[in-house]
Each structure stands twice: as C-alpha cells, then as structure tokens.
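Convert to structure. Protein one:
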Amino acid sequence: MVNWAGMFAGVQAVVRSAEGTADGIQRTCAFAAQHPDEYDEPDYWARVASSTFPFDTLIGWIHEGLLALEPLDGEVRSLLLLDCGDCPDGLWLGECRTPSVSDYAGFERYVKANVVVEGEDFAQAHIKDVKVLTHHLVTELNDPILSYPLFDKQWHGTNGYLLWLAAASLALSQPLRDANFCRQILHNRERLLIMSGFEEIFFDLGTVTPDGLSLE
C-alpha cells in the first residue's frame, strides 16, 4: 500500500524549497533516502542522483498547456490539475471549472487543509467541466530513467511514482515563478488553484494570482 500522504507531503516540501529543478531532484533523492522502507531501491536513486533530466522538454510541455488557457466567460476562478498518469506513464494538464465562487472557495479551503484530495472531493464541490490543455507520454522524453518502458523495462513501483511526481511538479512550478507569466495566463481569472497527483488523488501545489505563485 503506497503511503500517498507521505509522498505528497514530501514532493510538496521539495517544490516549495527547491532552488531550481536540479536542486529539486537532489532533494527528492534525499527524501527517498530518509524513508528507505518506502523507497527501497538505493541503486535506482543513485542513478537518479547522477542523472540530468530533460527539464527543458518537460517545461516546454507545461508552457504549451499554460498558454492554452483562455479567458473564462463570466468565471474568475478555476483549478489546474497536473495528472501524472498511472505506472506512471504520462503528463496530462487540464483545467477544471466550478459553477460558483462559493463552491470554489470551499474547495480551496479543503485542499489547503488536507494533504490528499480524492476524486470524490471534486464531485462534492461540483468541480467539473474539464478542459484538456496538453497531454504527453514519458516515452516521448526518450530518457533512460523517466522513459522506463523504452529502456530497462523495469517498473520501479513507489520509487518511480515519487520520481515522476517530483519531476513533473517541479516542471510545472518553474514558469509560474515568473509573476509576469502568471498574469499573462490568468486572463480574467482572480485565482488559479494548482494541484498535482495521479488520476484520482491529488495534492495542493500552490495558488496563482496576479501577484504570482504562492506555494503556501
């Protein structure tokens, strides 16, 4: 059984403290080393620590999705979901909308108070109307570690989940650290809640406002 709360809290802390993507990967390796019972492949993490990942491509995918955001008709708040797939196998970025500001505000409070947010929580808050902004597969990266189906063929279980979630979340946060870019993609939105995770389980990555990205 994967400890999703522990993994999500670890990646959340990595993204909040990382000084760039390379530092974020090293912090992820350190987190894995601190939890050897959960992340039980030290040889795998040694490879990760000595590797350079294709973050230019990853951030390019994120840019592609963020620039696809359009002004909303009468709505001023929405939710951005980064779905890292299953196994994990991809990067899917989508926007979800809610029919009322009160539903959004209540959901945002819930998200900020909980590490793990599940699919049923979205339904209860009437979060729906998903628009796909971009979708890519890890095989497109042609990377010896991240594109594992093409190379060593081994599924690294919880270790692989942690690495891909951290890498994708770090990539998403990078362009949003530029307040000017945040204002560009927000259009008429007052707030954009950013979440990351896998299919039906997510965690709070931050909130975008015209002042930039807040990771708290």
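Protein two, convert as well:
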Amino acid sequence: MNHHTLREIAKFLSGMVASKIITIIWLSWIGLMPLILIGTPFNEDSIVSATIFNVAVLALLVYYGWHVKSPMHSPSERNLLLVVGALFLVIAAVHFTRIMFGFSFILGDFMVPAWLSWCGLVISVYLSYSSFHFALRMKGGRK
C-alpha cells in the first residue's frame, strides 16, 4: 500500500469515527442510555470518556489523512518506527502468552475467544516486523 491509499483510508475512517461521535451523543440526547453493545454497557458516565477517546482518534486520522507529507525523511521518523515496532512486539507477546497459557479475557459480559488472539498475534507480528524493517532501511534519515 502506498501513502496515498493509506491517506484515503484515514479520510474514510475519520468519517466513520465522526459518525460514531454523533451517534453516541444522539443516543444520549434521546434517552436511549444505558445501552449494551457487544456485552459492554454504556451509560451516561461512559459517554464523556468515549467521546474524548473518539475525538482523539478522529484528530489523529484527520491529521494523517490531510496533513502528513510523503515520504518523510527525518531521523525522528526512524526512532518513531523503532518505538512502534517495539510496542507491537510487546502486543504480540501478550497475545502469544494468552494463547500459550489459555488465559481468558472478558470485556463486560463478553468472553473474547482465543481465535481473536491468533488474529491479533499475526497482525501485531506483521506490524512489528514492518516497523523494524522500515526503520532499519533508513540510514541517516533517508531510505
């Protein structure tokens, strides 16, 4: 995938997140709270934190979708890729540990199936590998 495609995906997702923010506020306004989605209860207390989180995600998607220049050739990008690679490696280790030891993970009333950790493991290993690969290809801030 090239940068243009990723930006277009970010633009699309920013619309989805914006509609989610509007939906959360609308459901609260018309009095449909408390509500249970995927076993997770939402009530008046969780609206503020959910809205703040979604606004932060929206801000990141809008920034990437409309303002990031391509390609970026700064030494700080290499360090960022190394940090992101390490973070995804830790996430992969958590998924691997859950699979190996059979830990259960419950969100509200929903028990997350183990196969979802397999998906998370594959995705996080790939993202970690890609981040380290691109970071190591950069020498002095250049590809």
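The beta strands are 35-37, 40-42, 105-107, 110-112. The chain has a mean pLDDT of 79.
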